[in-house]
Specification:
The complex is a heterodimer. Chain A is α/β, with parallel strands linked by helices. Helices cover 38% and strands 19% of the residues of chain A. Chain B is of the alpha/beta class. The chains are: A alpha/beta, B alpha/beta.
């Protein structure tokens, strides 16, 4: 049946901010869906609170609402836009849950909106554990023995039947939030309590453990005529027990015979039919007993998912695009598979002739104290994918794509193992953590047999034997040395995926030595195409990966071309914002007639969609891999300033090897990043910097600190996202930091900066062409200096800066842009203390705030800057005038603390947020209120506010308390704060600190007596003491602020909680150009 | 150390790799199959007789081999070409590694070559004659010469070469039961299956559906089969060109004079076409994969099928009493036919899968339906006669 003509407009709900378990894969799927539906002539309405997405670009949909994703707000949008249909399957669990809310609240019925792509019944059956189990039993499929519990008593009763270990899964939570595996009663009670609380329906499923079973996923697409195809099968290398998002996964399935594979295929289709997923993509997960092949259905997602994004990238089959078209009535037989240029129909099941490995990226280092053991609750923040002709090649490429400093199977432990080392090894194998795969390699190095490693890890022997073989190669190579590298041997090594860097390390040389030798031998990779059909049909799509084989299919063109280096796996500090910039560069330069070439290895992104650029190289972002592509393609320009730190780190080496880097030169980048060179520049411009110093030893640090003065911000050089950054208030703290936190050396010195306390921080984004400078936006941070800029909320235009200060910021920005000879994007962080402007840092590259500024002002900064880099000046583009919106846009950060209940949820100079949201309004308060709502903060409107602040915040706290009382709150405070408040005439209840005896503040939080918490601290001891307050706040979902400024902004927001005004982005932008 | 091997094609292309099977030389038509699973089924499928099969998925041998997954009593493929033979097999049903299986079955096999390059070459040039040679100091030119000497499959009657030499019975159902209740022996329908290179999966599925199977040699005359008093005739898949199989065409023509239900698969489908008056053609490359969508013309439904054929019934030559029932979604080629005047139908792909998806298993149900209908009609038809005679 062709598409439906009874639908005119369709509402799509996005996934909101990037959080653990829901990352940029939903920008990829949502953007594809919008594009597909617009292509079909529908009016597309989109709501997503995340400004750093391609889907919220004004061109993506007809009406874009960057608004909080909750049923009330969406009800307003529905009322305003009157869509005919709602497509809820593109925005992850957030969109599904919100759609269910809209059904429950009667909104869809009231406005006559039809839900397409999935029905309420199907969502319920897939999501409700008990309904799902019964449905599976109906079609003769087994599920793990399990029962639902709604209370601790019920849970304990069920547990006694099932036994330990018990798997606990809360219903309706994303990424398995609040779930886990319990081995004893204590763990069981803790996990059940957390799970009951996390589940919106207060229920948990308790399940028989199938730890160690093989885990498979099938990606299925179905149309309304009941035609089904399997897009991809995925085998988890990490067996059952580790969340699939945290597992290394491999496509296609490796250890199933056809008979077993077809059984899973049949079962997957039966599951879709039973659940009643009418159209679209779904994912079904299975556990298979390795001893007898018994199959259990674990779960199914009636929507596109992280796995479907992976399956799309792994096969080249655009699941979201096809799913969107099926939702509006097409059947699979009517759609073409675009990757083969229409040579195959969409119903042609992809078959692949390579191996895909996905590896998760963790950032436990950001959350000291967090439990690093992997379980059924997802903890990774990103992932990298690699393609190779064999598993070995694919696995080793994946390891170096991760950008965690590994070139392959790098050693974790030193051989021979000490007793401690042996214990550590055994622990890491049995209790999987973020680097288990590397410990597997260590186990082989330490002489463990395959059987022993299997017994400890339950990783399928097939995978283990492949890794064991690589280790055998490594040890032989180490023994034979550099001189043994003949063409045949080097070729054999490269075919197994060894990087130049890893080979160099093994033979005790440097990477350039191996590279030189390889080139001398004429050994280069070839590029093969991803075509969904294993070469059965020819394809014009240039979706390529490298391998060491005979035939190269790259077929580079003679066109003018620009290569864009992407950002690699998402991590804290480098996420979707940079992918957004890369995609914009590709779009702009494509429009200008260039052939665009994207290089990236993150399967969740829009940049790795094969039609975002003219050519896509799905490759690790290492010097070796990138340089080979540059030599093959010979682009006239390479853009390194859009993908965050990843490509920037490569820029000098690439330039030295002859890569034509366009935009700001690597040398200018170096001036901005090198403390000493930058200091000279700032001095020569007569601008101000906080006092600072660079220390290469602990002793030097201590003596320099005396000159610079405390408090200090300390950090290692060359880091992004403020890794290992701390504020230290005294010498003891500094000494401890120098000895614990970082390894100091000549190569990586530690930077000391005077910390500007209570200063206002400001971000400025700008584009420079060498002559003109376009100010993109001035963003005033709401939290004062000391909180990482990525974690602060900010306002555009500034809410509290005088015109004079703003103008001075513009002057200084222009000066710096010219002095650094910036060509392209730049970001400057300023701090303003007592009216004096200090420069904190200059980043001559795309910043995290570029998408936010672009959405707020309607100027696509990344596109403008990309054109500047290819020689189109700002005046040629007509983009020299800054736009200052008449409305406010507020950006707010979103944090993953609920996933790391053991870690301290305090904000500081080290970035911890995973994503961001945006709110707009006519006043700052309104915009801030929406940003808070979008970030999931529920602002209380009355009740008890607990205030406990450090000394220097006490004056601010008094004003805050008065503001809160004026809005109907009561105040409680601990000793020192209470004293100050009482002196100022503020009525407040005095409450015990934890160490002052019970009942104390944590007791009150546990008893739900506190509605709002404002808690600021400084100094290691105070932070330690107050940690339990913040942790309990996270656990009990009490709104809390760790800065007074944030809390004060909230008071503004409280005045705007009533009637919500929803703003169409395109209408806002009209105000700017009118 | 591993033994070198080469694969030479008639166009002079030579691939150098390592031997992973038996020592020696082999020639055949080089084809590829894009199925990612099921190498053991492919190797033992008689349809691959005289063909050197290239598997496009790079790791072949991951799950070892098991007697359960044999499609016949021997390996029929003339040789195997793969990218990588893994170091270890892992599967709970595995009883033997692929390499040991290849050695035991004396199959010449080459690994470590750029199989994607080979596949692209075959796609562009069509199926090629080829030769695999193993051992030290291989004479590449000799290999190319051997490849060129291979006559190709056009005009080659291989069905009688691979067919069983004597009649046998088959009653084993599927390895894993799908039907809820086992069929009662007394109610079993009797199917006579012509073995032109039959796969065991077909026999298993029919047995599972409650059929008692008699498998007969390819050249068994029609009257001998009719004398077995079957409820239906099955025409199996098989290798080679259907046109020279005049004995089979003659037998089918005879069956078409009766009310006997007939179901043909692959070569059997082509033979039904020829017996009905249609023509067959040799395709440039043919279809070889487990992911091919076909449309069931009556319902418009899309079914994913397993395909392995180099000849096809020419849709333009269908007589009036032969109607198309399925066609391929990517090249529109004819995939299934049914007689309008007889309970006879056939399918070009492999509804028995193995390897491949099970979407088309419903064709076996249609065959069952036709047989049951005939039995019921005949018993209804007979009853009045009996009554009449009783009266008389």
């Amino acid at each position: 049946m062709p598409k439906r003509t009874d639908l005119g407009s369709i509402l799509i709900i996005g996934a909101g901010p990037i959080v653990i378990g829901q990352a940029c894969e939903f920008d990829y799927s949502g953007a594809q869906a919008c594009k597909a539906l617009k292509e079909e002539g529908y009016r597309v309405i989109l709501v997503n609170s995340n400004p750093a997405t391609i889907m919220t670009d004004p061109e993506t949909a007809d009406a874009i609402y960057i608004e909080p994703i909750n049923w009330r707000t969406i009800a307003r949008i529905i009322e305003k836009e009157q869509p005919n249909a709602l497509l809820p399957t593109m925005g992850g669990q957030t969109a599904l849950n919100t759609a269910l809310d809209l059904v429950r609240e009667g909104i869809l019925e009231k406005f006559g909106v039809e839900m397409i792509g999935a029905s309420q019944r199907a969502i319920d059956m897939a999501e409700d554990r008990e309904l799902f189990r019964r449905a599976m039993a109906d079609i003769g499929l087994e599920t793990a023995r399990a029962r639902i519990a709604h209370s601790m008593e019920e849970a304990l009763a069920v547990q006694s039947e099932i036994g330990f270990p018990t798997v606990i899964r809360p219903s309706f939570t994303l990424g398995g939030s609040g779930g886990g595996i319990a081995y004893n009663r204590e763990e069981f009670e803790a996990t059940v309590a957390r799970g009951l609380d996390a589940s919106p329906t207060n229920e948990v499923l308790l399940e028989e453990s199938v730890l160690g079973w093989k885990e498979y996923e099938m990606e299925v697409v179905r149309d309304h005529d009941d035609n089904c195809i399997i897009v991809c099968s995925i085998e988890n290398l990490d067996p059952m027990g580790v969340h699939t998002g945290d597992s290394i996964t491999v496509a296609p399935a490796q250890t199933l015979t056809d008979r077993e594979f077809q059984r899973l295929r049949d079962a997957s289709i039966a599951v879709l039919r039973k659940i009643g997923v009418d159209t679209g993509g779904s994912n079904v997960q299975f556990a298979v007993n390795p001893d007898d092949g018994r199959v259990l259905v674990i779960e199914m997602n009636p929507r596109v998912s992280r796995s479907s994004a992976l399956a799309s990238k792994a096969t080249g089959f655009p699941i979201a695009k096809i799913a969107a078209k099926l939702a509006v009535g097409y059947t699979l037989s009517e759609l073409k598979n675009e990757i083969t240029g229409g040579a195959t129909p969409a119903s042609f099941e992809p078959t692949i002739d390579y191996v895909v490995t996905k590896i998760p990226r963790f950032t436990f280092e950001k959350f000291p104290g967090a439990n690093t053991r992997l379980s059924t609750q997802m903890k990774s923040v990103g992932e990298a994918m690699a393609i190779g002709r064999t598993f070995q090649e694919s696995m080793q490429k994946a390891l170096r794509s991760l950008e965690t400093g590994y070139d392959g199977f790098d050693e974790q432990l030193t051989l021979p193992l000490t007793d401690e080392g042996a214990e550590k090894l055994s622990y890491e194998l049995r209790w999987p953590g973020p680097d288990r795969i590397l410990y597997v390699a260590d186990a082989f190095r330490a002489g463990w047999s395959l059987g022993q490693v299997f017994e400890a890890t339950k990783i399928d022997p097939w995978f283990l034997s492949q890794i064991e073989d690589l280790l055998r190669e490594e040890s032989e190579l180490a023994k034979d040395g550099f001189e043994s590298l003949t063409l045949a041997r080097l070729r054999a090594l490269k075919r197994k995926g060894f990087s130049d860097a890893r080979i160099a390390k093994l033979v005790g040389r440097d990477e350039p030595d191996v590279r030189r030798e390889r080139r001398k031998l004429g050994l280069h990779p070839v590029y093969k195409r991803v075509d969904t059909c294993a070469a059965e049909f020819s394809t014009s799509t240039a979706y390529l990966y490298s391998t060491y084989e005979e035939e190269c299919e790259a077929a580079p063109s003679e066109r003018r071309k620009i290569m864009i280096l992407g950002g690699g796996p998402n991590r804290i500090g480098q996420g979707i914002e940079f992918d957004y910039c890369c995609v914009h560069a590709a779009m702009a330069l494509r429009e200008d007639g260039f052939e665009t070439i994207m290089v990236n290895c993150n399967p969740e992104t829009v940049s790795t969609d094969y039609d975002t650029s003219d050519r896509l190289y799905f490759e690790p972002l290492t010097f070796e891999d990138v340089m080979e592509i540059i030599e093959k393609e010979k682009p006239e320009g390479v853009i390194v300033q859009y993908g965050g730190q990843t490509p920037l780190k490569l820029s000098r080496a690439l330039a030295a090897a002859g890569a034509p880097i366009i935009g700001t030169t690597p040398d200018s980048i170096d001036v901005a990043e090198d403390r000493e060179r930058f200091q000279k520049l700032v001095a020569s411009l007569k601008l101000k910097q906080p006092a600072n110093a660079t220390a290469r030893t602990e002793a030097a640090a201590v003596s320099m600190a005396k000159e610079v003065g405390f408090p200090l911000i300390v950090r290692p050089s060359y880091v992004l996202g403020g890794r290992a950054m701390e504020v230290v208030f005294n010498e003891d703290d500094l000494r401890q930091y120098m000895s614990d936190a970082v390894k100091v050396s000549n190569d990586s010195p530690v930077l000391l900066d005077r910390f500007l306390d209570l200063a206002i921080e400001v971000d400025v984004d700008a584009v420079s062409d060498g002559t003109d400078v376009l100010i993109g936006g001035i963003m005033e941070h709401i939290e004062q200096a000391g909180v990482h800029s990525g974690d602060s909320s900010c306002s555009l235009p500034p809410n509290g800066l005088s015109q004079e200060v703003q103008d001075e910021l513009r002057v200084q920005t222009r000066k710096l842009a010219k002095a650094l000879n910036v060509i392209g994007l730049m970001n400057i962080q300023f701090a303003i203390q007592s009216g004096v402007i200090y420069i904190l840092e200059v980043n001559p590259r795309a910043s995290r705030t570029v998408p936010f500024v672009s959405k707020a002002t309607g100027i696509p900064l990344a596109k403008v800057a990309a054109r500047v880099m290819t020689g189109k000046t700002l005046s040629m583009q007509g983009r020299t005038v800054e736009r200052i919106p008449p409305y406010f846009s507020v950006k707010e950060a979103v944090f993953p603390f609920v996933k790391f209940p053991e870690a301290d949820p305090i904000l500081g100079p080290e970035m911890k947020s995973t994503g961001e949201v945006m709110g707009t309004g006519n006043t700052f308060g309104e915009a801030y209120a929406k940003a808070q709502a979008a970030s999931g903060v529920v602002l209380p409107t009355r009740g008890l506010c607990f205030i406990s602040v450090r000394d220097r915040d006490k004056p601010g706290a008094t004003i805050l308390a008065q503001m809160l009382i004026a809005r109907g709150f009561e105040i409680a405070a601990t000793g020192g704060t209470a004293l100050v408040l009482e002196e100022a005439g503020v009525t407040c209840r005095r409450v015990n600190k934890v160490r002052e005896g019970r009942p104390h503040v944590v007791d009150m939080i546990k008893n739900d007596e506190v509605a709002l918490i404002v808690n600021t601290t400084e100094g290691k001891q105070a932070v330690r003491e107050s940690r339990s307050i913040r942790r309990e706040a996270v656990a009990r979902r009490v709104t809390y602020y760790t800065t007074v400024a944030g809390a004060r902004a909230t008071c503004d927001a409280l005045d705007h909680l009533g009637d919500i005004e929803v703003n169409r982005l395109q209408d806002l932008h009209k105000e700017l150009t009118a | 150390m591993s033994t070198p091997a080469v694969l030479a094609l008639e166009d002079g292309t030579v691939f150098r790799g390592v031997s992973v099977g038996a020592k020696g030389n082999t020639t055949g038509e080089v084809v590829f199959n894009t199925a990612m699973t099921g190498y053991q089924e492919i190797l033992t499928d008689p349809s691959y007789c005289r063909q050197i099969v290239t598997l496009t998925y790079p790791h072949i041998g991951n799950t070892g081999t098991t007697p359960e997954d044999l499609e016949s009593g021997a390996v029929f493929a003339a040789g195997l070409v793969i990218r990588n033979l893994p170091l270890l097999q892992s599967n709970w049903r595995s009883t033997e590694s692929l390499q040991s299986f290849l050695l035991r079955c004396k199959v010449v096999a080459i690994a470590d070559i750029d199989t994607r390059k080979l596949t692209r070459l075959l796609r562009e040039k069509g199926a090629q004659s080829g030769c695999i040679m193993t051992g030290e100091n291989i004479d590449q030119n000799a290999a190319v010469r051997a490849a060129k000497k291979f006559p190709g499959l056009k005009g080659m009657d291989l069905a009688k070469a691979v067919s069983t030499k004597k009649v046998y019975q088959w009653n084993d159902g599927l390895i894993w039961k799908t039907a809820a209740k086992p069929p009662r022996p007394q109610s079993r329908l009797h199917v006579v299956a012509y073995d032109f290179g039959i796969k065991r999966s077909i026999l298993r599925i029919l047995a599972e559906h409650g059929c008692r199977m008699t498998v007969v040699p390819a050249q068994t005359p029609a009257d001998q089969v009719l004398a077995m008093n079957p409820d239906g005739i099955f025409l199996s898949n098989g290798p080679g060109d259907p046109e020279p199989c005049d004995y089979a065409i003659a037998a089918i023509t005879r069956f078409l004079e009766t009310d006997m239900p007939i179901f043909g698969i692959c070569l059997g489908h082509q033979l039904l076409g020829l017996a009905s008056g249609a023509k067959t053609v040799k395709m440039k490359f043919g279809h070889h994969g487990a992911n091919h969508p076909v449309v069931e013309i009556d319902s418009g439904r899309v079914l994913i099928s397993s395909q392995n054929h180099g000849f096809a019934v020419d849709a333009a030559t269908l007589p009036d009493n032969l109607r198309p029932t399925h066609h391929s979604l990517f090249d529109g080629s004819l995939q299934g036919v049914a007689r309008t005047d007889r309970p006879a139908f056939s399918f070009q792909g492999h509804p028995e899968a193995s390897p491949g998806p099970h979407d088309l298993r419903l064709l076996f149900e249609h065959f069952m339906y036709l047989m049951v209908k005939r039995v019921q009609a005949n018993s209804r038809g007979r009853t009045p006669v009996k009554q009449k005679s009783a009266e008389g």
